[in-house]
Design brief:
alpha+beta; two-stranded antiparallel ribbon; globular
Length: 208
């Protein structure tokens, strides 16, 4: 009789442990909070992971891992750019000032990637971007890594001969990466700093 009771207690304990384990392993996944209404930023329904990449910055490599935990706006250009790049960086500096002043769980970041590695060394890019905003992330890469990275974002560029030198034609669209460093959306020109700043603040608050 005592053995029978013991067996019942063991079976009940095993069932309880099994139930607890199943709850821990198969606990329901809550859907993410819906994104807020946005004006300047166009977010896609299904973010997609980027192929592995490694960019070079003045302080070391930048991979997807360094871009996780916060929203990132990616802009490609070059330091010899006569108009588009300085205008875009000036506009984005105003947007950056807005989210810098906001109380956020994780501040968004702007990543400026030079598509002219022949002339733009990592230290030079960092110095150039800091003129507009001190917290801008900067990087470049050698070929073919640079082309592979930009194409994964849907961006293009091309070297164009210009007299004895050359210039670079490139996409003016900005790309948005979510806190998982996935392709999550775009920002098309003309850039509206106040609206972009408000959109990124709303995103950071809704899904840090």
């Amino acid at each position: 009789m005592t053995r029978k009771i013991l067996l019942i207690l063991i079976a009940a304990l095993a069932a309880g442990l099994g139930l607890a384990l199943s709850v821990a392993v198969f606990k329901p996944v809550l859907p993410p909070k819906p994104l807020p209404a946005l004006t300047a930023v166009k977010v896609i329904d299904s973010p997609r992971a980027l192929p592995p990449f490694e960019l070079q910055s003045a302080t070391g490599p930048i991979t997807a891992e360094q871009l996780k935990g916060h929203w990132t706006v990616v802009f490609v250009g070059f330091t010899h750019c006569p108009d588009v790049c300085p205008t875009a960086l000036t506009d984005m500096a105003r947007a950056q000032a807005l989210w810098d002043a906001a109380e956020l769980p994780a501040k968004p970041k702007l990543l400026f990637v030079s598509i002219d590695p022949e002339r733009d060394m990592p230290a030079k890019i960092a110095e150039y971007a800091a003129y507009f905003h001190k917290d801008t992330l900067t990087a470049t890469a050698a070929e073919p890594q640079l082309t592979e990275f930009t194409r994964s974002l849907g961006l293009v560029y091309m070297k164009v001969p210009q007299g004895d030198s050359y210039t670079m034609d490139h996409s003016a669209t900005l790309v948005l990466l979510n806190p998982k460093a996935e392709f999550a959306g775009i920002i098309r020109p003309p850039l509206k700093p106040e609206t972009i700043g408000a959109d990124l603040i709303a995103l950071a608050k809704a899904r840090p």
